[in-house]
Amino acid sequence: MNLSHTLFNTVSNKLRLKVSLLNEEKLYVKSLRAQIESLKKIKENSYKDISIQKNQLENGNNQNLVIMYVINISFLKANTTIHVSDIKGNMKLFYSAGSVGLAGKQKRKRRVAALKLISLILKRATFLNKKPVALHLKNVNSYKNIIVSKLKRSLFIRVVKSFNQIPYNGCRKKKVRRKKYTKKFR
Questions:
Q1: What is the DSSP string of the chain?
Q2: What total number of domains does the chain contain?
């Protein structure tokens, strides 16, 4: 009788374990179904939001759009450039330091070149007024604050991104080869 009792206990314990695992799986499946339904609702709502934004764009209401234009300012080794493009990448305006009357080594004077280019862009780009703009700065290290403050006075800047491509230490030096010494015989 003792053997049958232990067999019964082990079988019943295994069944309880299987039942508890089934209950856990059942709860897991229910939570997955709830998540799927909530994601479907979010997807439907986002499609509605996109259609609303398209309608607003067609009607001329651009208040909810994130960015309309991108202004790129680049400090190159021998020049300073600025260009304005729309979101799709179509260039609207482009100026370099040579277009504001700077030539030769004057183009490397960053502060003068940047301020002249910014004032030129503000005069020519009247379409930027009251529209959200992203500002991309390449290799602009210490002049970042000057440029941003000058542009903020007359433009609505939404995003400022800084890309520094010049390394802090510079490139690794080339390995110096040792000269081979040969003895001269007399």
A1: -HHHHHHHHHHHHHHHHHHHHHHHHHHHHHHHHHHHHHHHHHHHHHHHHHHHHHHHHHHT--TT-S-SEEEEEEE-SS-EEEEEEETT--EEEEEEGGGGT--GGGGG-HHHHHHHHHHHHHHH-GGGTTSEEEEEEES--TTHHHHHHHHHTTSEEEEEEEE--S-SS-SPPPPPPPPPP-PPP-
A2: 2
The answer to whether position 172 is within a domain reads no
- 47 in the same domain as 23: yes
pLDDT of residue 72: 93
Q: Same domain for 55 and 73?
A: no
Entry pTM: 0.55
Judge if 115 and 138 occupy the same domain.
Answer: yes
Q: What CATH number does the domain containing 145 carry?
A: 3.30.420.80
Summarised one tens digit per residue, pLDDT across range 28-47 is 888 888 888 888 887 777 66
Structure tokens at 84: 């304005």
